[in-house]
Specification:
The chain contains three helices and no strands. With 122 residues, the protein is mainly α. The model has no long low-confidence stretch (mean pLDDT 85).
């Protein structure tokens, strides 16, 4: 069982490192996108992309505490604080629902755009 424990710890550390890297890349790239969305002239498009970007940033931030715990042998480093744990759970729940809402909204917008391009019978 000792070898299995070492293998799981190594796997957790690798998974945690990959997750931390992914979250940091996601935070950086989403933050870089904000200025280009701001330059768009259409306010509705800007608001939709702003909501999508903020949702992605919140999701990345919510994943960091559990990823850090994986690197530290599943020790709840940041999640040992009950208020932070509750806040992280709440924000993750809200951000996942907002993500689904944004995808649904984008799908409807795309569908409406395609319908406008299809010639109507006269």
């Amino acid at each position: 069982t000792n070898n299995l424990s070492r293998e799981m710890t190594f796997t957790d550390e690798i998974f945690g490192a990959i997750e931390i890297s992914s979250c940091l890349i996601g935070l950086a790239l989403n933050s870089l996108c904000l200025p280009s969305f701001y330059r768009r002239s259409d306010k509705a498009t800007f608001l939709l992309y702003l909501v999508a970007t903020v949702t992605d940033i919140v999701t990345c931030l919510c994943c960091l505490p559990s990823a850090i715990s994986m690197v530290y042998s599943r020790d709840p480093v940041l999640l040992s604080s009950p208020p932070l744990c509750i806040l992280t759970g709440f924000l993750f729940n809200v951000s996942s629902r907002m993500s689904v809402f944004v995808v649904a909204t984008l799908s409807v917008v795309r569908w409406m755009t395609i319908c406008d391009m299809v010639p109507r019978p006269t």
